[in-house]
Amino acid sequence: MSERIVRDPRILLGKPVVAGTRIPVYVILNLLRHGYDVEGVVMAYPDLTVEDVRAAIRYAEHQLPGVLPQAVAEAV
Fold first, then answer.
1. What is the DSSP string of 13-73?
2. What is the pLDDT of residues 9-45, one digit of tens each?
3. Rounded Cα–Cα distance for residues 17 and 11 (Å)
4. Is 7 helix (H, G, I), strand (E, B) or coil?
5. Which of 9, 38, 2, 41 has the alpha carbon at shortest distance from 23?
6. CA distances to 39, 40, 46, 60 from 43, in Å
7. How far, in Å, CA of 16 to CA of 7, rounded?
8. 20: how many CB neighbours lie within 10 A of its CB?
9. What is the pTM of this model?
10. Domain ranges within the chain, ordered by starting residue
């Protein structure tokens, strides 16, 4: 799995976040589900990179197969 996505019980109660931030994977996925593209997420959260967003999508695909809407999965 990606080193870009980490879980630490001291950060957001162990929810998966982008390493070095407190930005949880679920926030990234929520933006994508609501019409943001990868670049739009990066603009909304300048601490993120395109690869961080893609890593969050891959993480969700691995942890929750079949749950991501097709449009989000295609953003990778």
1. GG--EETTS--BHHHHHHHHHTT--HHHHHHHSTT--HHHHHHHHHHHHHHSTTTS-HHHH
2. 999 999 999 999 999 999 999 999 999 999 999 999 9
3. 8
4. coil
5. 41
6. 6, 5, 5, 21
7. 5
8. 10
9. 0.84
10. 25-76
Q: How far apart are alpha carbons 1 and 10 in whole angstroms?
A: 20
**DSSP state for residue 11 in the 8-state scheme:** S
Q: Which two tokens stand for residue 46?
A: 């300048």
For residues 15 and 7, the answer to whether their CB atoms sit within 8 Å is yes
Going by the DSSP 8-state scheme, the letter that residue 8 receives in this structure is -
Which residue matches tokens 């019409």? 35
